[in-house]
Design a protein that fits this description.
By secondary structure, the protein is an alpha/beta fold. The chain has 2 domains: 255 residues, Aldehyde Dehydrogenase, Chain A, domain 1, CATH 3.40.605; 192 residues, 3-Layer(aba) Sandwich (Aldehyde Dehydrogenase, Chain A, domain 2). It is 37% helix and 22% strand. The protein has 17 helices and 25 strands. The strands form 7 sheets. It has a 7-stranded mixed beta sheet with strand order 15-18-19-14-13-21-22, with helices on both faces. Strand 13, helix 10 and strand 14 form a beta-alpha-beta unit. The model has no long low-confidence stretch (mean pLDDT 96).
């Protein structure tokens, strides 16, 4: 596409379908702290949509969506203090509440959240440029995730609802909360990825300071009342402030027990060092990834191209699980590129509400500039853009680019591009492809494409010791959520799946005594009279 053709992808104001228009700008002036929606009278941060509107002169401008509070240290301190007070050294109403009680609160939250589906889906679409279909999918998947996490917690707790007697000692083991969690999610899945840490943290009895992502902050506004009404005061607190200003301060206080961050390893390394007793800080981190696809000479090319195209360009490649390097055997690389270019040309580029759209605007012009810079660097060092018009951009819209051959020394070779640029390198010996994964700083996933059992089998064993998931003849992906989602090297710390996340935000604690008649009567009395929420033999249906 030419710049003028890209400009035609953006609508004029009256061309936006009425059913997809926002009712007006959303100027958020409240935040949640200690069970209250506090009013904000200070500076606010404007929010611009990735979607641009085309004027009469043919120029395009990003759509203003509204604004949210631009708070500072005093407000973040208040949010942290509220979470600390609600936890109350483990004596607060939330950490001492029964598991059944916490589940009841979470179910109340989900009911309130479901009532706001249309508003939140629309905000996801307009705030981050995600297609309407994918925005709906993100919301629905998040609701399903909460239900599955509740079910897993019931199973976990029911499995602990008994006493164990070993070598004359009676004991009961349960999982207990860790304290205050600082929760920060990413812009690409602002609802789902944030809730994949927030929900298990809450269900396990922790209190939370939630910092919404910069892109996707407004979509949490409809949930503030729901949080307030579903949970005890101080259990969920929100801050809207520049991360570089308040987050190091929060950690330096020593009051944060768990850092839950989906972001970059560079930021995570810096933040962890701010804690005065870093050995006390548990980190649950989803970080950088540069997942590779290795396409062997006997691969089904149609299948490999289809999966690699989806893996590289779903939501414009803005996924940590995206395929960000395609490593193709030299004997088939030309055929692979031809098929990929043809498939790439069939992708629909347009606005998020358009039926079947696959390439949508990026968060801002800074992202398109990064993509262009990375392509220019590669071309200056011997690569070229294979598809016609690839890399053409206008404001927030960027035509995907297939770049080949990518080599060591180019930005695209090692750096996570997180956008619609698809780098391809070739190999003669499979050891070259294997060494790319081994020498990478990242270790989340890899995809293998081939049909020879000997070749695939010989690669599986070394690769499972380098990454946490090997996908055979399929793109890299997170789901299903019951499977572990983790990373080696700079890609993650801790494992996120439904059951693993519950364990990540808790620790095993035990009550034990000697096996004597007096102690048996004592334990029976505590359980029978419900004197402890920890010691019990109840079963949650």
């Amino acid at each position: 596409m030419t710049p003028s053709e890209l400009a035609a992808c953006f609508p004029t104001p009256d061309a936006v379908p009425p059913e997809h228009r926002l009712p007006g700008e959303l100027h958020q002036r409240h935040y949640l702290v200690d069970g209250r929606l506090e009013h904000w009278d200070g500076a606010c941060k404007p929010v611009l949509s990735p979607v641009c509107l085309r004027g009469a002169d043919g120029g395009v401008e990003q759509v203003p969506l509204g604004s949210y509070p631009d708070m500072g240290e005093a407000q973040s301190d208040a949010a942290l203090d509220a979470a600390v007070a609600a936890y109350a050294s483990g004596r607060g109403a939330w950490p001492t509440m029964s598991v059944a009680g916490r589940i009841e609160c979470m179910e109340r939250f989900v009911q309130g959240m479901a009532k706001r589906r249309e508003q939140i889906v629309r905000l996801i679409m307009w705030e981050i440029g995600k297609s309407l279909a994918d925005a709906r999918k993100e919301f629905d998947r998040t609701v399903e995730y909460i239900g599955a996490t509740i079910a897993a917690l019931k199973d976990m707790d029911n499995g602990h609802s008994r006493f164990t007697v070993v070598e004359g000692t009676i004991g009961q083991v349960r999982r207990t909360p860790l304290g205050v969690v600082l929760c920060m999610g990413p812009y690409n899945y602002p609802l789902n990825e944030t809730f994949c840490t927030l929900i298990p943290a809450l269900l396990m009895g922790n209190t939370v300071v939630l910092k919404p992502p910069t892109y996707g902050a407004l979509l949490f506004e409809p949930l503030l009342e729901v949080f307030r009404d579903a949970f005890p005061a101080g259990v969920v607190n929100t801050i809207y402030a520049p991360g570089e200003v308040v987050v190091p301060r929060l950690l330096a206080s020593g009051k944060v027990n768990v850092l839950a961050l989906i972001g970059s390893s560079r930021v995570a390394d810096f933040l962890k060092k701010q804690h005065p007793k870093s050995h006390r800080l548990r980190a649950v981190l989803g970080l950088d990834a540069k997942n590779a696809a290795i396409v062997l000479p006997d691969a089904d090319l149609d299948l490999a191209v289809r999966e690699c195209l989806l893996g590289a360009l779903s939501f414009n490649g803005q996924r940590c699980t995206a395929l960000k390097m395609l490593i193709v055997h030299r004997s088939i690389v030309d055929a692979f590129l031809d098929k990929f270019v043809a498939a790439l040309g069939r992708l629909k580029m347009g606005m998020p509400w358009e039926e079947g759209v696959q390439i949508t605007p990026l968060p801002g012009p800074h992202r398109t500039r990064y993509m262009k810079d990375a392509i220019e660097d590669a071309c200056a060092k011997g690569a070229r853009v294979i598809n016609a018009g690839g890399g053409t951009s206008l404001c927030t819209l960027f035509q995907p680019a297939l770049v080949y051959p990518v080599r060591e020394g180019m930005t695209l070779h090692r750096e996570e591009q997180f956008g619609p640029v698809v780098p391809v390198m070739d190999f003669d010996n499979v050891e070259e492809a294997l060494q790319y994964v081994i020498s990478s700083d990242h270790g989340q996933q890899v995809s293998l494409f081939g049909r020879d059992a000997d070749r695939i089998g010989a690669l599986i064993d070394p690769l499972v010791n380098q990454v946490c998931r090997v996908n055979i003849n399929a793109q890299c992906q997170r789901g299903p959520d019951v499977f572990p989602f983790a990373g080696r090297k700079d890609s993650a710390e801790g494992t996120l799946s439904i059951s693993d996340a519950l364990r990540a935000f808790s620790i095993r604690s035990m009550v034990a005594t000697r096996e004597t008649e007096d102690n048996k009567q004592l334990l029976n009395g505590i359980v029978r009279e419900h004197k402890s929420t920890f010691l019990n033999t109840g079963f949650i249906l």
